[in-house]
Structures are given as C-alpha cells and as structure tokens.
Amino acid sequence: MTAGASTHLPMVLSGQDGSPTNPGPVALSPSDRVLVTFTAQDCGVAPMTWGQFDMWRAMVGQNNWLPLGGTQRLEPGTRLEDVVEELRYLMTRFPSLRTRLRFGDGDRPVQVLFDSGQITLELFDATAIGDADGTGEAAEDAPGRTAAAIEAQYRRAAFHFADHWPLRMALVLDRGVPTHMVALICHLALDAAGAQVMLREAAQRRTAPCAGLQPLDQARWQSSPAGLRQNAAALRHWENLIRSAPTRRIGGLDAPRQPVRWCAQFTSLALQLGVRAIAARVAVDSSVVLLVLYATALARITGVNPVVTRPLVSNRFRPGLADVVCTAVQGGILALDVADATVDEAIRRAQRSVMIASKHAYYDPEQLDDMIARVTRELPGDFEIRCFFNDRRSLQQNTASAAHDQITPRVLHEARDRGVLRWTEKTDQDRDENMFVHIDEDPTGIVLTVCAHTGYFSPERIEALAHGMEHVAIAAALNPAEPTLMSTTPPDHHRFGA
C-alpha cells in the first residue's frame, strides 16, 4: 500500500494558537527541500486503538495536533546525509510514523499503515531570520533563533490527518553546515514513553524486528475475546465506582471570567522536597504521594470527600506494550478518601485504589461515554467526571536537584519562599475537562500546572490548590502525624464527580 495524494481533507486541526492561518511573528520559508523515500514490509488498515481514539478526541476537543518534540543542537560534524538517513530510519522502522487516518461519512476514523512513501525534510538558511522579528537589530545566534522560529511555525501550522505524516522535520544550516534539527511528532503517533523508545532505538540503530504489539496488532487484540473481556471488566468497575461514590460537585457556580479558561504554573522546590521525604518515609511511589496531596488540598478547599478524579495511566505495564512507539495513555477513575486520617495513612490507603484504577484504565472510550451518559440519567442530581490528573515526571529525564539529607523546617521554609506562581494561559477555547492538573519536574523543583474553567473552579481556588498542595507537603514532611483535617462526609451530601 503506497501513500498517494488525497484531494479530500476531511479533518484538519490547527496548532497551539488555535488558528491554522496565523503565521505568527516570524514566517520563514525553506531554502530547499529534500524528499526522503522509505519502504517497509508491513501495511494494513484497522480501527483506531483505544489509546489512539482517546488521544484523537483530546486533540479534536482542543483543536490542536498536540505535537511532541522540539529543537536539538547537532553535534559538530553532522552532515546533511546523516540527517536524511536518520529520517529514513525513523520512517522505515516505526509503523506509527507511517500511519495516517482515513475518514468516512460520519464514521469513526480508521488507521492506515503504509509500507512506502516519501517525506519532506525542509532546509532553512540560518541567516534567513535576519530582522524577521521586527526588532531592528541583527540576529544574534542566528542558527538557534532560526530553529526556534521554525519550531514555533511548525507548531502553529495546520495538520491534515489524511495527508500528512505524523512527523515534521527541518534542518538549519549556517553557511551550509547543519547546526540544529527541529522534529515534531503528532501525539496520535506516540506518547512520552513511546518517544523514549523511539529515541533509544534510533540512537542504537536497532534493526531487529520491533518488539511488542504494534498499533494494528493492538487493534486486533482489542476486538478479540480477551480484549472484549478487558473492556467489559473496566466498564463494570467504572460503573460500580460511579454509583457508589457519595460525593458533591467540587466546583462552584460562579460566573466565568473572560476568557473563561485559566492556567497557572507553580514551581515549588518545597513541594519537591516534601514529596521525596514523605515517599521515602511511607515507602511508596511519589506519584501516590502527589495524588493524596492533591486530594487533601482539594478536600480542604471544597469540603468534599472522597475526591473523585481521572488520573492519566500509562498502559505500558500491559503485555506487549512496554517498548512500542505508540500512544498508550488513557484516563482512569479514582476515588480518594482522605477523611479521618493522617496524611501518611491516607497515602497507604490510596495505594490499592491507585493500582485498581490503573488495572481498569484500558477500555473503549466510546463505550465508556455511553455508560456514563446512561448512569448520569439514572442518578439524582448533577453528576460529572471531568477533572484530570497527569503526572508526567516518571517519563522525563531526571534532572531534578538532589534532595537534602535532612529535611528541616528551615530548609523547607526557605524552599517555600522561592516558589513562583504565574498565569500562563487565558483562553476561550472550549474543552471537555473542567480541570486538568499536570505534574512536571525540573532542576528548580516540581512544576505544577493547574488549568480550569473559571465558572467551575475560580482563579482564587486554582491558586489555593497549588499553594495548598505545597502546604500539606511541608507539614506532612515534618510531622508523620499530620492530619488531613477532613472528617467523614455526611451521608446526605449530593453526588459529584471531580
């Protein structure tokens, strides 16, 4: 099956600024293009996998192809031929990079894997940036600035799922010498774990057959008797949890701000140090600690317990998925009970719940929606499950600063004083989720990003949640008997989904 040009573009998503026609502050044109031909052995057509379809819906909801990747400074001596061969290797080896979508009339898209085709490597002259940014000054570090402009331009550009390969790559040349490579890959083709697999195998130039279940194989398994049993078990678990969680809506009914959706980024060394100290003392994964800190801070703000949230789960622990370049992340469902306990006790209590949530975070997203819609009609009051928690740290390079040997009040309070909260985005973009919490880590500490619809969770509460997680982390790190300050929820509370 060879890729051919399509005259029909049934689905196009824009880049990060929400406008596929906005060229941005810098618009660069390539000085040349190299067509890279690739051939492989495998091809075929199959339904989208559960992970693909979950990611597809997220991208459609945000009108964004959600690219992963960025800019890399090349080693001295790198030649154009080296980059061409790397691009050919990537396209030949990894099926997800040779996959496009096919759309029918009102049908769910299907994935189409091609066994051959051509992809374009764009070449840019580093001097082309000149005064393109309008400063009136000659560009310093022209290669680096050119690469940054190309990356921003690639992120903004519209993405055609039927006609574009998931990978966009450019090469910056300074007086004919390659200096930087820009590579962005659509999130539909891989997640962060898949990106790590791709980079590792590309560095080693592996030629043995790819390990594990590739996307076409995943789709076949998911429609097999074993896959149908997994899906049915997951849906039963979800429905039982939803029906049994006696909770209230955490969000208010305030008039939304304009723009309606706000994002805050909070960088905290104190949160990082506190999480490490608690995790070492309780002997649990720090992700569980962060989930309980989030639930405790949220419960203190809202008075609602248990806190029901949607943790994003990497399904890499499942057979055949560990080393596959694909997207295998789906949202689980988790009810965190932090009442009548110390923070340490709440963490130990949460361990089993987190494991069960991970076990059942592998399902058909459309069937899940149907079940939630049915249960919502049957339950009294207002019900929703649209708050997500995404801990991305385990898939990032461990560049975080070393923990102190001894956590003292002075160390933690000095670290707290260095925390920085800033508003990073305010948009009217319509999205499905009411709140999304992302966890990252860098040398300055844990980077906590909280995005929420302000009619559901106000900016004041966003700030309170970020600082509240840090406060609980400091208190619990210093005091193993630190209480959650939550009591058992009265039985007459309305139901809610956080």
Strand content: 15-25%
The number of helices is 12
Low-confidence stretches: 2-10, 17-24, 395-404, 489-498
How much helicity do the residues have? Answer: 25-40%
- The protein's oligomeric status is single chain
Number of strands: 18
Global outline: globular
Round the Cα radius of gyration to an integer and report it.
24 Å
**Overall mean pLDDT:** 88
- How does the major sheet shape up? 8 strands, mixed
| Distance linking N and C termini | 46 Å
Order of helices and strands: EEEHEHEEEHEEEHHHEHHEEEHHEHEEEH
Class based on secondary structure composition and strand pairing:
alpha+beta
How would you portray this structure in words?
- By secondary structure, this protein is an alpha+beta fold.
- 35% of the residues lie in helices and 22% in strands.
- It is built from twelve helices and 18 strands.
- It has helices at residues 50-62, 80-93, 142-156, 192-204, 215-222, 225-244, 269-282, 286-302, 343-359, 365-378, 409-417, 459-478, and strands at 12-13, 32-39, 44-47, 67-73, 99-102, 110-113, 116-125, 159-160, 167-174, 177-186, 261-268, 307-314, 329-331, 334-336, 387-391, 420-427, 435-442, 445-453.
- The strands form four sheets. Strands 11, 12, 13, 14, 15, 16, 17 and 18 form an eight-stranded mixed beta sheet that branches.
- β9 (167-174) and β10 form a beta hairpin.
- α6 packs parallel to α10 (365-378) and α7 (269-282) packs antiparallel against α11 (409-417).
- The two termini are 46 Å apart.
